[in-house]
Amino acid sequence: MKPPGNDVVAFESAEKIILRWDSTASEDAREKMIFAGDRHEIDRYLQAVDEIQRSMESATLSDDHSKANSAIQIAMARLEDEFRNILIAHTTPIEADSLTDSSPLPGDDSEDDSPLTKDLEHQERSTSSVSYRSTNSIREIDLMPSNAIYDLRCIAERMILAGYLRECIQVYGSVRKSAVDSSFRKLGIEKLSIGDIQRLEWETLETKIRRWIRAAKVCVRILFASEKKLCEQIFEGLATATDDACFMETIKGPAIQLFNFAEAISISRRSPEKLFKILDLHDALSDLLVDIEIVFDSKSSESIRVQAVEILSRLAEAARGILSEFENAVLREPSKVPVPGGTIHPLTRYVMNYISLISDYKQTMSELIVSKPSTGSRYSSDPNTPDMDFVDVESQTPLALHLIWIAVILQFNLEGKSKCYRDTSLAHLFMMNNVHYIVQKIKGSPELREMVGDDCLRKLTGKFRQAATNYQRATWVNVLHCLRDEGLHVKGNFSSGVSKSALRERFKTFNAMFEEVHRTQSTWLIPDTQLREELRISISEKLIPAYRSFLGRFRSHIESGRHPENYIKYSGEDIETAVLDFFEGYQVSQHIRRRSQ
C-alpha cells in the first residue's frame, strides 16, 4: 500500500494534466485535441483520468472528494469532446457505388472482391479483412480503423466507470445516426410518413418499391450489421448491454423509417395491379427475416423484429385479399359493348396475362394461398355465379384451384358478353376466339400448364372446338340447305324431271346467302393464324364439294335456258377463293372475285 503522501503527489500530478487540457480555461486546449497528438500524450491523459478515479474511490475527507469530483467532471467533458471528435474524424461516407448488396449465391465460395471490400481498403489505416456472420448474406465491414476503435473504447470505458454512460451513448448515437442518414440518402430512402406514401400515385410507388427492395437488403445485411459490429467493438463488455443500447440509439430511427415504407404498402388500398409489387416486397422481406433476427437479436430491438414479422403477415394478407377481389372483379366485370368482329376481348387478354404472372410467383403464392376459392355455387342458386365441381380437381393445390376458378369465371363472363351480339354465328365465333386464347396462354406457360393440369386443359380445348362447331352450324346449315336435291324434282303422269324455276330460285338463294356471309364474315376476325386457317379448311371441306356436286348435277338445266349467268354466278374455284377472305377483320370488295369460266 502506498504511503498517503504518494497518493497526494499522484493526485496533484494527475489533476495538473487534467486542468492543462481544460478547454474552458485554456485557448491552447480548445484548439488542440489530445487524441490527434502522439500516443505518449494520449496515454498520459488516460492514466491521469484513472488516477483521479482511484482518488475518488479512496478519498475520506469531503474536501479531497470535492477536488477529485471537480477534476473528473473536467476530464469527462474533455473525453466527451474527444470521443465525438474521433467519431466524426473517422466517419467516412461510404461511396454510392459501394452501397450494393453483393451477397454471393449459395455455394459460391469465391474470393470477395465486392465494391464494399475495395472501399474498405481505402478507408482503413490498418489492414483488416471483411468479417462474416454464420450466414452468407450478412456482410459486416469495418467502419473505422482499429486504432480509432481502440481509442474510442478507452474513452468509453472511463466515461462509463465515471457514471457518464448516458452522455457516451448520446454522443455516439448522434454522430453515427448522421452517418446512417447519409447512407440512406445515397440509397434513395426518403423520409416519408405512412400517410405521405399512401398519397403517392401507384406508378411512382412502383419505382420506389424497386428501389426500397434493393436498399433494404443493403441496410439490413451491410449497413445495420456493420453498425452493430462497430458497437460491439467499442462497447462490448464495458457495461450491461451498452453495445446494444448504442446500436439502438444509432439505428432505431432509420430502421423504423425503412420499415414504415413496407408497412404503408401493406395497409394501402388494394387493387389488382398492386399484387406483383406486393409479392416482390413480401419475397424480399421474407428473405431478409433471418438476417433481421440476427442483426436485431436483443431484447431492446424486439420491436423491430416484431414490426418486420407483422408487415410480412400484412403483405401476405394483402396478396390473398387482392386475389379474392380480382376473382370477384373478373366475375362482375360489367362491359356489354361487343368487341368488333368477335375478336379477343380486352378482359380475356388482361385476365390471362394476369394469371400467367401469378404462375411466375408460384412458390410464393402457393405458400400464401392455403384455402380453396369460395365459389358459393354449391350453397346457392345464384344465376350470376357459375357452377364448379371441385371433385374433379380435388388433388390440385389451393393456388391451382384459384387459377382454374378464374378461368371458369372468365368464361362465364364471356358467355354473358357473347349474348350482346345480334348475330348468333358471331357470338359463337367470339367464344371460340376467347376460349382458344385462354388455352394458348395456358399452354404457353409451363408453370401455369402444370398447375391447371391436362384434364382442365382438355375441357377448355373441347369448349372452343364446340364453339367452332356451333358457329359452323349457325352459319352454314342454311347455306348448305340450298344445295340439297329435295324440292327440285317434279313428277308428271309419264315422266319425272327437274323444275327449272325451282332450280333457278335455289341458285339465286344460294348466291344471295353466300354473298351476305362473305360480306359480313370477311370483317370478322380470328387473330390466331392457325385457328383461322383451320376453320377456313373446315368450311371448305363441307362447302366446296357440296357446291361442286350440286353444280355438276344441275348446271346443264340452267345453261339450256336463258341468261344462265344470272344464276350460275360462281365456279367452285370462285367459292374456294372467297372463303380465303373470311375472318381477316376488314371489309373486302362487295363482289366476290370470279375466275374465267
From TrEMBL:
Family: Belongs to the EXO70 family.
Domain of life: Eukaryota
Function: Component of the exocyst complex.
Span of domain Exocyst complex subunit Exo70 C-terminal: 211-580
Cellular component terms (Gene Ontology): exocyst
One term of GO molecular function: phosphatidylinositol-4,5-bisphosphate binding
Species classification: Eukaryota, Viridiplantae, Streptophyta, Embryophyta, Tracheophyta
SUPFAM superfamilies linked: Cullin repeat-like (SSF74788)
Sequence segments annotated as region (Disordered): 97-133
Keyword line: Exocytosis, Protein transport, Transport
Feature: compositional bias, Basic and acidic residues: 115-125
Annotated protein name in UniProt: Exocyst subunit Exo70 family protein
